[in-house]
Amino acid sequence: MAAKSRTPLAVCVRLCSRMANSGVISYSDLKSLVGRDKGLVLVDVRNKDEVDKGRIPGSIHIPLSDVERDLSLDPDAFQTKFGVAKPPLDTPNLVFHCQLGRRGQAATDKAKSLGFENARNYVGAYKEWSEKEGK
């Protein structure tokens, strides 16, 4: 019985289930959304000087220090400031990222505390994106 629960399929199912509920997104999953999913709201929480060196296509810039304030804006103010619709609290594709992952996780935690229950952190962050995209 114990051996049965350690089969590769059972392990994969358990890990995938945990990842789906853990608030993270991988490079391949994010890559499949960028430019294809109109509902994706990708938030770059790095500092302006970091963003000026490169960004993930379609991302909006909200420095970590402004995440709580900007996610609390009314929908019209958010649209005016960022040029995209403010995501609803239950949006499935609100993704944060930074340079290495830590600030992205802090932003994800802030968003969740505001009620964005499905907010996710791109754990590979811009470092992984730029390496894989050759930028």
UniProtKB/TrEMBL annotation:
Residue ranges annotated for the Rhodanese domain, each copy included: 36-134
UniProt xrefs under InterPro entries: Rhodanese-like_dom, Rhodanese-like_dom_sf, TSTD1_mml
Catalytic residues (UniProt): C98
Name of this chain's protein: Thiosulfate sulfurtransferase like domain containing 1
Record Pfam families: Rhodanese
A molecular function (GO) term: thiosulfate-thiol sulfurtransferase activity
PANTHER family in the cross-refs: THIOSULFATE:GLUTATHIONE SULFURTRANSFERASE
GO biological process terms on file: sulfide oxidation, using sulfide:quinone oxidoreductase
GO cellular component: cytoplasm
Taxonomy, superkingdom: Eukaryota
